[in-house]
């Protein structure tokens, strides 16, 4: 694309790529200097030019100018960058149906359910914590909500491949940093709001205000889908200029689930919608997943697909990787791998574990808490876990450069009852211990990492087999004795 077609009066040079990281710049690139949390992109202009940048977009006054390089000074970097990105990639989000999902918990689950069901009607992509995928393409993500350049590049690729819709997880970090400012959302979904990410946002108000941006920025033809049972929906309602649609269980709303019958194998409920009652059977388990399912059903129906058609596909929704994943190797006790990593997520999964565990049986927990992330929640994790567990095995969970033992000690400060608690640093050994301790009808909960195939250690991402694989492997080897010689 010609620079002159992006910025009025700019030289007529070719721009072949957009970059915010000087280390990644290629020939004929445009480099945006972002002032970040750790450093400032203005410091890396030389490197960007050495790597081939021919245009530098900056906000600060520069002292040095290199010949034949176009310098564009702007007032608002986020706004300018997003306008340029959208234009460069030919406004991909305007050429597809975009579902954006935000909230403290449930983003990955709701977006995956939307993709799973919508794919029956037209090709749908998914972008979020678990992966970036559409049709046969599957890529590993770096972030939940990618940076705006990569995000628009993926959407451009999806449009080229005739993908008609995308379900996008919208994190509070992404909203705060303007990563989705160039995205034309058609449907914005709110799951719930509880404590998280205060290390980044500072206060709970800032955290909520970040989430709110998705609704404030929604176009007037857009539709907001809100969880009526979460009190924060009232505040979001006032931020929306378009139509508001509600879903929930406890209060009357547009999509209400009533008479829930929960079991380990699935859930039955009556869905009240538009003065009709639809009997629903789904393989999804636990009440919070019915909220997630309602959010997905409402999104798809509001996008124009009739309810009767949508309901054909809810009885067998694909397992969302690492989210309430039941590991069944034929052992006589329950083993659940779950990505719960917020106090509310933990509380919800423990409530479910308690509901499926007979009173005289035990709940055995394996978890830790991430290093360099929100240390305030560690003690709360201890409090919640000790309320529901009969045994707690604390272990590593993305320790980064912190000591897993010290993180475990902080979790222990929340454990004030007599529940048995041990620390086993190696996550595989901790999972093995839980499996070996379990008796028939017990429930082993392995929390925090889901299916993630990596562990953040001091040197960055290291491989990890994933909690689901570790659980299946330890059950087979050390409980059932399969594949062990002696
Ligand atoms: C806290 C946070 O979100 N940080 C993001 C932010 O980094 P930053 O502001 O610290 O950037 P910085 O390191 O100060 O650098 C400033 C600028 O200089 C540039 N630079 C830097 C060094 C260099 O040699 N050359 C160069 O050009 C950088 O590319 C950047 O443009 O901007 C970077 C560029 O877009 C992101 O990669 C980075 O995400 C980091 C890696 C991250 O881990 N973010 C997580 C916390 C995050 O966003 N998570 C949410 C999900 C949370 C959840 O729900 O669990 C997500 O959406 O993934
Ligand atoms: N609607 C919900 N309400 C409360 N807890 C939930 C809900 N949905 C999922 N959870 C819990 O949160 C965990 C994470 O779910 P999910 O990955 O869908 O959330 P998320 O918002 O995408 O989180 P992240 O962005 O960190 O991936 C689940 O494993 C479960 O324990």
UniProtKB/TrEMBL annotation:
Ranges that cross the membrane: none
GO molecular-function terms, A-Z: UDP-N-acetylmuramoylalanyl-D-glutamate-2,6-diaminopimelate ligase activity
Residues that coordinate or bind UDP-N-acetyl-alpha-D-muramoyl-L-alanyl-D-glutamate: 22, 144-145, 171, 177, 179
Taxonomic lineage of the native organism: Bacteria, Bacillati, Bacillota, Erysipelotrichia, Erysipelotrichales
Principal localisation: cytoplasm
EC code(s) of this entry: 6.3.2.-
Domain Mur ligase central: 101-299
Primary role: Catalyzes the addition of an amino acid to the nucleotide precursor UDP-N-acetylmuramoyl-L-alanyl-D-glutamate (UMAG) in the biosynthesis of bacterial cell-wall peptidoglycan.
Ligand binding (ATP): 103-109
Encoding gene per record: murE
Protein's cellular compartments: Cytoplasm
Pathways per UniProt: Cell wall biogenesis; peptidoglycan biosynthesis
Signal sequence interval, chain numbering: none
Domain Mur ligase N-terminal catalytic: from-to ranges: 14-62
The name this protein goes by in its record: UDP-N-acetylmuramyl-tripeptide synthetase
Post-translational modification: Carboxylation is probably crucial for Mg(2+) binding and, consequently, for the gamma-phosphate positioning of ATP.
PTM sites of type N6-carboxylysine: 211
SUPFAM superfamilies: MurD-like peptide ligases, catalytic domain, MurD-like peptide ligases, peptide-binding domain, MurE/MurF N-terminal domain
Similarity field: Belongs to the MurCDEF family. MurE subfamily.
Domain Mur ligase C-terminal positions: 322-450
Alphabetical list of Pfam families matching this protein: Mur_ligase, Mur_ligase_C, Mur_ligase_M
InterPro entries referenced in this protein's UniProt entry, alphabetically: Mur-like_cat_sf, Mur_ligase_C, Mur_ligase_C_dom_sf, Mur_ligase_cen, Mur_ligase_N, MurE/MurF_N, UDP-N-AcMur-Glu-dNH2Pim_ligase
Cofactor: Mg(2+)
EC class (word): ligase
Species per Swiss-Prot/TrEMBL record: Breznakia pachnodae
UniProt keyword terms in alphabetical order: ATP-binding, Cell cycle, Cell division, Cell shape, Cell wall biogenesis/degradation, Cytoplasm, Ligase, Magnesium, Nucleotide-binding, Peptidoglycan synthesis
